[in-house]
């Protein structure tokens, strides 16, 4: 997925008022302030109250439902442009979020797990270095995960 498409998606979701946070490889790149590698998809944590609005906004951009593992995640695809992996998160008034995981597990996000990064000169909400490191724990990393982890470890603490 190219940077220009990522920015297009983020701009449209922002215009629609969808509260989100960039995670995954693009989240690492947002912390770096530059793309570090090729990306298949854009991982977005989306406030569950705006989830359907996010899906509708992406549909208007040509993204169609492809992998539906709700309530854990929904992946939408636009041929030749990429995938957006949407993760619904229930966020309370204090900013604490809970995402459903596989087999009844959950992922917890403290309000402090969000920060601002930069992609293409545009500020974007993204997960902090510590949150990204925590999410990369507990599974056998793929080569791109190992690359992301190395970059995350090279950054200063938030």
In short:
32% of the residues lie in helices and 32% in strands. It has helices spanning 3-15, 24-32, 51-60, 129-135, 143-154; strands at residues 20-23, 41-47, 64-68, 74-78, 82-91, 97-100, 106-109, 114-119, 122-127.
What does this structure look like?
With about 160 residues, this protein is α+β, with helices and mostly antiparallel strands. It contains five helices and nine strands; from the N terminus they run αβαβαβββββββαα. It has helices spanning about 5-15, 25-30, 50-60, 130-135, 145-155, and strands at about 20-25, 40-45, 65-70, 75-80, 80-90, 95-100, 105-110, 115-120, 120-125. The strands form two sheets. Strands 1, 2, 3, 4, 5, 6 and 7 form a seven-stranded mixed β-sheet that branches. The protein has a two-stranded antiparallel sheet with strand order 8-9. Strand 6 (about 95-100) and strand 7 form a beta hairpin. The two termini are about 25 Å apart.
